[in-house]
Amino acid sequence: MRRHWLRGLLLGVSLALLLLMVGLVGVLALPGVASAQEPWLDAGDAPTSWNNHGNAPMTAYPWLDPGSARFPVVSPAHHPGPPPPGGYGICHTPPRCSHLGDGKSWEYDADLLDDDDGVTNINPRNDIADRDGMDDGVEFPRAMPSCRVSYITVSGEVLTELDPSGVIVQQGFINAWFDWNRNGNWADTNLCACSVDEWAVRDVLVKPGPFSLEIPVMACNPVSDADPVWVRVTLSEESMAFLMAQYPAEEWMAGGMPAAHDWCLGEGETEDYYVEFEPDVEEEFVPEWGSIALLGSGLAGLAGYATLRWRTRE
């Protein structure tokens, strides 16, 4: 009799534990709570009205209406229903760690917790964006005058990988999009008198290891050089031009991924910036010591040549 009672007790405890585990798994699988089975990723933090909160309208710029932000941001990993018009945002999956700046923070999605920063990258219901704590890989000049070349500085590190023969096989590509006409997307082309595209930096090749590059950008400010602009900079192991060639052009929202592309990129990081300018500030030119030494040696050579010519004439 005691054995039957003990077996019943053990069976009851086992069943209770099983139900408890099932309940915990169900809680962890809820949107906004990451579990071991759910992918963490790196996403952007520009505003978007295509989001996981009932497509709550977000504003691109203070002078535009709510709903004007149509940047591709949310990932295909958790977005319910059909893809957003024009495709998903660029996202990257762990565990590898090529990055812009000093590192990157992982999130469940751009607008879903959990997040390494403690807050979501964007808060659609309150129309708040630009909250990723690790956007630290790009430096912008204080002014980018229209139809003139300016330089952005992009730094970070590309993971080094070796194949079985010891040959380095990893590389990176830098791409950047500027919302030059300030309409809430990165899809426009042939803007301003200088005919620039919003895809301003295209597949700049980066070798393995730490890097810091000055990249030229032809700017376009149709209204004022003082207007702020949303910018996306992406480091990826995939060539964006190659990926775009695999899908029809009409399926792309520039700066994101095509609607049919339902997985994240691997290596890399994407950073979005709301860049504010000081157009009345003249950029100060400070020559590097190498340039000064080269100029000095050139002047010395000219002086020596002039002296030699003078003596020859005598």
Question: What would you note in describing this structure?
Answer:
- The structure is a single chain.
- With 314 residues, this protein is of the alpha+beta class.
- The protein has 3 helices and 10 strands.
- The strands form 3 sheets. Strands 1, 4, 5 and 8 form a 4-stranded antiparallel β-sheet that branches. It has a 4-stranded antiparallel β-sheet with strand order 7-6-9-10, with no helix packed on it. A two-stranded antiparallel sheet has the order 2-3.
- A hairpin with a 2-residue loop joins strand 2 and strand 3 (112-115).
- The longest helix has 27 residues, at 2-28.
- The termini are far apart.
- The model is unreliable at 15-38, 288-295 and 305-310 (pLDDT under 50).
Characteristic terms for this protein:
10 strands, globular, 4-stranded antiparallel β-sheet, 18% helix, alpha+beta, 314 residues
Question: How are the secondary structure elements laid out?
Answer:
Layout: H1 2-28, E1 99-100, E2 107-109, E3 112-115, E4 138-139, E5 149-158, E6 172-178, E7 199-206, E8 209-218, E9 229-236, H2 240-245, E10 268-275, H3 289-313
Antiparallel strand pairs: 1-5, 2-3, 4-5, 5-8, 6-7, 6-9, 9-10
